[in-house]
């Protein structure tokens, strides 16, 4: 499969769906994308359902991750994100695309103990094997496939209400996000921890700071594609974000524009991903950019991202939301690790595209050109007409409205 479908955005919705069929989706799967979630299913997902809140689902083109061409489903309300990801992927593609890897999917369950005895930690660690066995007995399927509770750690925490003993239960969650497994296991061993510690257990809950479950992606953005000034511009933008929390928050929001959109399209918990990513960015006691950039010896721009990504290919809305299965098929992912690698790559792509625009022509010009392109397609422009209408507005000065775009299209057609 070749994901570099030039001018995919110039097609109509039906033609884009036809392309997805060429890329392996069935007519029924394309229909799932257009129809989305049904009310009956929605009514079983959350409480007090009265309707369905839909989001646009777009496809980012040009992606190559670990030598595999990919069409990336992105669910997002914000214009220019899908275009920006596609543009960045096209540039990275010139040097082979993204290389990505992910760690084992290990999550932390936290058990809070108040008033533990002095020797509590020693007693808990001595009983570790039995505690892990008890936790694993609750999920034999997870254990069968190599997952399950793997380790116990103790931390003493000074708080405004005195010292607390915090026990971490480390669980390899396999292809699940893991909240259910981790919370069930944490609750199950809590009475034993009370008995061993002589204290009182309060909270028993998963941590969204998934430090053990991280994904990394990197790419080279060749200077021949973006120009030497853009390489310097992006390095200046990176330095700005490193030095200034006001800029860094916006920079990292740009990363999450991409990461969240794929997380949502695959039925995953984007609040968990957001919480993990933003806290990870502050792990060294100051907020840092999620993506790093440097210049290679040959003068190209190298980019790298690393962030916690607790995403799943089984369980929760990845199972109940019909779009999620179609997105997984389109991405060709079987494991949560593969999905995390793709999401990290899209996060890097998104940040790169935003910095490229910001450090050169500015965000508004590209945004307006894109808005004009989209309106031109809606006004019936075909082929070259779309770019010519967009160029008309790229000079600035004229407001981009449906009326002004229709007038520009007529002008283009009159020559
Ligand atoms: P362009 O220069 O007009 O694009 O960029 P191009 O004509 O060179 O086309 C290159 C490729 O981009 C195309 O390849 C498409 O893949 C894609 P082709 O198909 O021709 O082989 N592309 C499009 N895809 C879909 N629809 C389109 C379209 N146009 C091009 N209409 C672009 C235009 C918007 C991509 C560029 O200006 C850009 O990347 N801008 C950044 C946009 C952005 O970051 N948006 C996020 C919202 S702003 C925000 O919230 C985050 C921020 O605050 C973060 C931060 O501050 O760090 C910015």
Overview of the molecule:
This protein has 415 residues and is an alpha+beta fold. The chain folds into three domains: 8-103 and 213-361, Alpha-Beta Complex (3-hydroxy-3-methylglutaryl-coenzyme A Reductase, Chain A, domain 2); 106-206, Alpha-Beta Plaits, CATH 3.30.70; 365-414, Helicase, Ruva Protein, domain 3 (Orthogonal Bundle). Helices cover 51% and strands 20% of the residues. It is built from 18 helices and ten strands. The protein has helices spanning 13-22, 27-35, 39-45, 81-93, 120-126, 128-137, 140-144, 179-197, 223-226, 228-243, 245-265, 270-280, 317-320, 322-331, 336-359, 363-378, 384-394, 402-414, and strands at residues 57-65, 68-75, 99-102, 106-114, 148-159, 162-172, 200-206, 214-221, 291-295, 301-308. The chain has a four-stranded antiparallel beta sheet with strand order 3-8-10-9. Strands 5-6-4-7 form a four-stranded antiparallel beta sheet. A two-stranded antiparallel sheet has the order 1-2. A hairpin with a 2-residue loop joins strand 1 and strand 2. The two termini are 38 Å apart. Bound molecules: 3-hydroxy-3-methylglutaryl-coenzyme A (HMG). The site of 3-hydroxy-3-methylglutaryl-coenzyme A has 31 residues, from strand 1, helix 4, helix 11, helix 15 and helix 16.
Map the helices and strands.
Blueprint: H1 13-22, H2 27-35, H3 39-45, E1 57-65, E2 68-75, H4 81-93, E3 99-102, E4 106-114, H5 120-126, H6 128-137, H7 140-144, E5 148-159, E6 162-172, H8 179-197, E7 200-206, E8 214-221, H9 223-226, H10 228-243, H11 245-265, H12 270-280, E9 291-295, E10 301-308, H13 317-320, H14 322-331, H15 336-359, H16 363-378, H17 384-394, H18 402-414
Antiparallel strand pairs: 1-2, 3-8, 4-6, 4-7, 5-6, 8-10, 9-10
Helix pairs in contact: 4-15, 6-8, 10-11, 10-15, 11-12, 11-15, 16-17, 17-18
3-hydroxy-3-methylglutaryl-coenzyme A is lined by residues 6-9, 61-62, 78, 80-84, 86-87, 90, 250-251, 253-254, 257, 353-355, 357-358, 363, 366, 369-370, 373-374.
């Amino acid at each position: 499969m070749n994901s570099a479908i030039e001018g995919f955005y110039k097609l109509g919705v039906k033609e884009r769906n036809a392309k997805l069929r060429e890329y392996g989706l069935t007519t029924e799967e394309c229909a799932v994308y257009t129809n989305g979630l049904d009310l009956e299913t929605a009514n079983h997902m959350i409480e007090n359902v009265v309707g369905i809140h839909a989001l646009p689902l777009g496809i980012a083109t040009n992606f190559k991750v670990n030598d595999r061409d990919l069409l990336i489903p992105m669910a997002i309300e914000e214009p220019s994100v899908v275009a920006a990801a596609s543009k960045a992927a096209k540039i990275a593609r010139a040097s082979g695309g993204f290389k990505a890897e992910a760690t084992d999917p290990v999550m932390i369950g936290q058990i809070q103990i108040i008033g533990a005895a002095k020797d509590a930690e020693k007693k808990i660690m001595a009983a570790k094997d039995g505690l892990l066995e008890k936790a694993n007995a609750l999920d034999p399927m997870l254990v069968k496939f190599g997952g399950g509770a793997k380790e116990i750690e103790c931390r003493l925490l000074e708080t405004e209400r005195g010292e607390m003993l915090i026990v971490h239960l480390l669980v390899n969650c396999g292809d699940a996000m893991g909240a259910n497994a981790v919370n069930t296991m944490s609750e199950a061993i809590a009475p034993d921890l009370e008995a061993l510690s002589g204290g009182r257990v309060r909270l028993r809950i998963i941590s969204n700071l998934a430090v053990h479950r991280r994904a990394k992606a990197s790419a080279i953005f060749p200077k021949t594609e973006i120009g030497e000034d853009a390489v310097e511009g992006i390095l200046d933008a990176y330095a700005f974000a490193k030095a200034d929390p006001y800029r860094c928050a916006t920079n990292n929001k740009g990363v999450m524009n991409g990461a969240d959109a794929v997380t949502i399209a695959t039925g995953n918990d984007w609040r968990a991903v957001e919480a993990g990513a933003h806290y990870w960015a502050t792990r060294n006691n100051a907020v840092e950019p999620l993506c790093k950039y440097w210049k290679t010896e040959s003068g190209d721009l190298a980019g790298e991202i690393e962030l916690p990504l607790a995403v799943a290919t089984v369980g929760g809305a990845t199972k109940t939301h019909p779009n999620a299965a179609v997105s997984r098929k389109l991405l060709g992912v079987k494991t949560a690790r593969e999905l995390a690698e793709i999401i990290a790559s899209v996060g890097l792509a998104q940040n790169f595209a935003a910095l490229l625009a910001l450090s050169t022509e500015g965000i508004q010009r590209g945004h307006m050109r894109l808005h004009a392109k989209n309106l031109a397609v809606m006004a019936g422009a075909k082929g070259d007409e779309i770019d010519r209408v967009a160029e008309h507005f790229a000079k600035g000065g004229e407001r981009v409205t449906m009326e002004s775009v229709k007038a520009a299209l007529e002008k283009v057609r009159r020559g």
